[in-house]
Design goal:
With about 120 residues, this protein is mainly alpha-helical. Helices cover about 55% and strands about 0% of the residues. It is globular, with a radius of gyration of 16 Å.
């Protein structure tokens, strides 16, 4: 199955069956389309079963390096890809999970400080 067809099926699934919010559906679709664009621009196959972990890692490097995205944004894209591959495995569109073992970049743990007057 081609990546675009699987993305279309996944978007329908999260929109209709999972009843995700419009913003969530739009974000997932954007993230997956960005991955598809990356693969296409780099001459990689867009057949689901030919996508590799190495290509996912290069995509992450591209996001952090060339596109200068913050780790939090990259984490969301990784999360979108992982949810997508989980769906594809359940639906048997995909034989192997190409996101298995992919680590999310560390983010700054922002902790609000509370000032107490004594």
């Amino acid at each position: 199955m081609q990546l675009q067809a699987a993305i279309d099926e996944f978007v329908l699934y999260i929109e209709i069956e999972k009843n995700y919010s419009e913003n969530t559906v739009t974000s997932y679709e954007y993230d997956l389309q960005l991955f598809l664009t990356f693969l296409t621009e780099h001459g990689c196959s867009t057949c689901l079963n030919e996508i590799t972990k190495t290509q996912v890692r290069r995509f992450i490097q591209h996001l952090l390096g060339s596109l200068k995205q913050k780790p939090r944004s990259v984490n969301r894209k990784i999360s979108s890809l992982k949810s997508f591959t989980k769906y594809c495995l359940i639906e048997r569109y995909l034989a192997n999970d190409f996101t298995r073992g992919i680590e999310s970049p560390k983010t700054d743990n922002f902790q609000p400080r509370f000032f107490h007057s004594l």
